Amino acid sequence: MKLTPELLSRSSSSINTLKDRSLDLRGLKIPAIENLGVTHDQNDSIDFTDNDIRYLGNFPLLSQLKHLQLGNNLISRIDSRLGYSLPALHSLDLTNNSISDLAEVGHLSRCTRLEYLCLMGNPVSREKNYRDFVIWKLPQVRVLDYQRIRDKERALAKELMETEEGRPTELAASILKDSEASAMDVDDVGKKKTFEPGRLNGSSRRLLSAEERRAIEDAIEKSESLDEIRRLEEQLKMGHTFAGSS
Questions:
Q1: Any idea where the U2A'/phosphoprotein 32 family A C-terminal domain is (predicted)?
Q2: Considering its fold, how many domains does the chain have in total?
Q3: What CATH number is given to the structural domain containing 127?
Q4: Do residues 15 and 94 share a domain?
Q5: Helices 130-137 and 170-183: crossing angle, nearest 10°?
Q6: Residues 227 and 135 in one domain
Q7: What is the rounded distance in angstroms from the CA atom of residue 107 to the CA atom of residue 78?
Q8: Of 1, 73, 156, 210, which alpha carbon lies 20 to 30 A from 142's?
Q9: Is the pTM of this model over 0.85?
């Protein structure tokens, strides 16, 4: 069932026990988040539990929204700009989804007010160094998977993931992978060449134009899977661009 303006207008919105206005969209087989602009940013909480959502993104600016429940969906990708769309996001429940890449979790770093995060039941939560990486990458989070983060854990995570110079260690670089690692200058840490999204065909001289960069961002935004994103990256490495694509 598509998340249409009509469906949103029919959905229940009420004041919960925390005195927050909550929008109930549970169990509707919604495949994608869309059309939330019609809510006029009136909700403190939205419950998307038990749907078919694959991508955590496509939010308009919702300055009021503090809590998101997204348990039991199919989410594998997280919008790197989520923090700009949801600047007040305080708690995020992603229990039992399909996130398998720690770099996707790293996209939550711009959610500067996020304090409560649950990723239990995702493939990523079974990765080695999962908890250490999340604690290091998201220092604003106080409670991860219903366990309070202790100062000792933070110190250990920083020791594992960050050098004395404040750069990612080789372990952190291997987790962040090409696109995010290059943005954090891990060439000096890992001593290996990485692909920079702003350059064509691995060149250190040929920068993308603003038009080419927008076209690439649009292509990635419209992609349906991680495999499709990887294919786009491979095409970029070959020197292809997406300028003028629809």
A1: 127-145
A2: 2
A3: 3.80.10.10
A4: yes
A5: 50
A6: no
A7: 7
A8: 73
A9: no
